[in-house]
């Protein structure tokens, strides 16, 4: 009994934090999502309206479009981050002059707050003062204006996310690569494999768990990006970069439609879980099954 | 199958030279063991043959081709690593078939060859398992199977049995030897274990500090070691060494140790009083009525044989007797040495004189 109490005592801080900041707000959001609630409106009371919010969002093209944009954003950002991150990790496995300085600088974006990243990128992409439109025009004669071109805005958000988060991927994959045993690679050379075959048949399968873990983390993060995008494009032009996180924010805060915003949050959480589950079923589970 | 010629091979890491012009000729189908204490350069030499380490000087040829700068994948060799180096994410069958798959061999051919090798190595039931589901001995066999499937010109083994327990090591030793007798593929085998070297090799290359100390057939090295190092390295338990001088008395040469023990030698042409090292194997010492008087310090019976650790004054001598003897620690006995089987080495050069 005594040891049981000690156990609970030791678990208490975690449970309190998890409960206070995770479970209770989630249940609250779930509760709000079944109501119509505008606390700043004429009638600030919460009015129960059953599944009306959910019924509404199934036919809400604005919402569905934002989900579609978010998925595109997540796909392009995460795939690019994995590819670039892997190449950088391989680069950092080699020795070259200035390697440690490069590694430090390359990691810096990670410690910058998203809101600051958004501001900096906004400055850099603003036509007439930004460095990026200037050089794109100077070198390629391309007029970049993320305020008017949906494609430019979308690409810029993806590039910003890559700039911000690739270092995380690099570090994770670097850790995975450093931890690989050396012998199978020498064995593969002796077995007659060339570089590409070694990468495809040996390296990739061996760091696969690390890649998958990184994809999960980055995908979940990308699906809920708000502040950087809000700072950079504000969701525009039109709704071209209004990803779900931003969409929810717009519904809940400027529009003060708390009930509907909560319902979208719940659905987005559900969609994220489903996507991760599909990834897991498609990529992880077959391996696990084969190897047991 | 092919012969391997190692000619004046040198290995340098920057300024540091670790292998100093090694020469070894390996005939087609021969089983050669590179043996020596750790750090002697044997593994480095093997890795140079495999192409995993660049060669700093000299010529290496496999078959008739000089392969100094040829990448490993083109050398047509198979290697078994100490760690087995199995691909953890591939099944046993995939591990064994990988080299053929890389070459683009048809699936049916890969299957047939893998099945055949698996049959030889008793792995048929394990083909769908992953390496982590296998025991050490099974992994070892998979690593060998992977080599056999290739049907390469040369097999390279880098301490393949070091990670196995003693019993399994003996069993695998026999298997590897049998395999070689069946396949007759040129084999280069690295080990630090002189028993492995003695039991498996057609030819042993004893290395130390990047030099070859002696090359020869196992029993030749045992009977006629070139120097003190080889004499002490080959044979277990190790040879007894005593420092002293050769003295002639009435035309009969004898060895007198620095501590005064007198031991017989066969006639050799050295001047009287020459400082030498006297070497005799424990198994060449017997008990008798006359001979060197010693006091037994420790008796180690192992059933088949009995090992006696004895002292003659300050000298320590170790004898291995084939039969059981009723000697106890502290007893005084006489050690009889056959002078034909004793060796005399020069103290300066450590080379054998007798």
Descriptive labels:
heterodimer; A: 292 residues; mainly alpha; MetI-like fold; two-stranded antiparallel ribbon; 12 helices; 2 strands; 1% strand; B: 354 residues; alpha+beta; Rossmann fold; OB fold (Dihydrolipoamide Acetyltransferase, E2P); 2 domains; 6-stranded mixed β-sheet; 5-stranded antiparallel β-sheet; 8 helices; 25% helix; elongated
Describe it.
The complex is a heterodimer of chains A (292) and B (354). Chain A is built from twelve helices and two strands; from the N terminus they run αββααααααααααα. Chain A has one domain (62-291): MetI-like (MetI-like fold, Orthogonal Bundle). In chain A, 74% of the residues lie in helices and 1% in strands. The model of chain A has no long low-confidence stretch (mean pLDDT 86). A two-stranded antiparallel ribbon of chain A has the order 1-2. Chain B contains eight helices and 19 strands. Chain B has a six-stranded mixed sheet, with helices on both faces. Chain B has a five-stranded antiparallel sheet with strand order 13-12-11-14-19. In chain B, strands 2-1-4-5 form a four-stranded antiparallel sheet, with helices on one face. In chain B, strand 4 and strand 5 (65-66) form a beta hairpin. In chain B, 41% of the residues are buried. The A-B interface holds A 181, 183-184, 186-194, 197, 201-202, 205-206, 208, 287, 291 and B 50-52, 71-75, 77-79, 81, 83-90, 98-99, 102-103, 130, 146, 150.
Strand content of chain A: under 5%
CATH architecture of the largest domain in chain B: 3-Layer(aba) Sandwich
Name of the CATH class of chain A: Mainly Alpha
The overall number of domains of chain B is 2
Instruction: Give the overall shape of chain B, derived from the CA principal axes.
Output: elongated
Write down how many β-strands of chain B occur, each being a DSSP E stretch of 2 or more residues: 19
Largest sheet of chain A: 2 strands, antiparallel
What would you give as the CATH superfamily of the largest domain in chain B?
Answer: P-loop containing nucleotide triphosphate hydrolases
The helix content of chain B is 10-25%
What Rg of chain A do the Cα atoms give? 23 Å
| Strand arrangement in the largest pleated sheet of chain B | 6-7-8-3-9-10
Category from helices, strands and their pairing of chain B: alpha+beta
Termini separation of chain B: 39 Å
* Average residue-wise pLDDT of chain A: 86
Overall 3D shape of chain A: globular
Q: What number of domains of chain A?
A: 1
- CATH-assigned fold name of the largest domain in chain B: Rossmann fold
- Proportion of residues in β-strands of chain B: 35-45%
Structural class of chain A: mainly alpha
- Cα(first) to Cα(last) distance of chain A is 39 Å
